[in-house]
Amino acid sequence: MKRTLLIIACILCVLGATAQDWFDSGTNHTRFGVRLSWDLNTPSTSFNNMVPTYHSGSGLCAGAFINIPLFMNAYIEPGVGVYYNTMVISQNIRDDIELDYPLTPQGSLRNSGFRIPMVFGFRFDVTDDVAISVFTGPQINVGLTLQQYVNSTHDKISLYDHGWHRVDAQWLFGVRFYYSDNWICDISGGIGMTNMADGAAYPGQTFRRNTFSIGVGYLF
Q: The whole model's pTM is what?
């Protein structure tokens, strides 16, 4: 009986030490990082009397961030990035209002701007070289350009001149993998929280930006 209790106590000590390593490495410090991601953009739309218009497209985002430890392996991570994203336009038909710009039978939506994420995460140190973290938090997108491009005529229309909003917000969630303390790879999703096309110019309509991203980066 004493031997069994001793074995159990040893196992619990080992598990406790391992858990301590997983949740608190004891060497956390503020670090600067860079990241490049491929983005899949999937809009969530609801337009009155309109055939579904905007469809998934892709793009890139390059940025930098600061990883700031809080307690144990918890951290906050503000950042800023520059993005260029596209979406596919298949058709645009309205029969209840008149638009002051040409209808678009086929083309693309081209959007560039800045992204400002602010996420909270927690890292689990699996081994000396491998770690995994989960994170979540808001992201603000500030648009510089938003052009509707028509394939047949090569016309470009700035939707910011027609009631679209330059600023929108998303809620991010994701998982990140660390290797050798410096290299990172993450997978994340962003759910659109704000409407990019509303008001008097777009009665009863919604357009929210949703994203799926795969990124690689480096922590200094």
A: 0.79
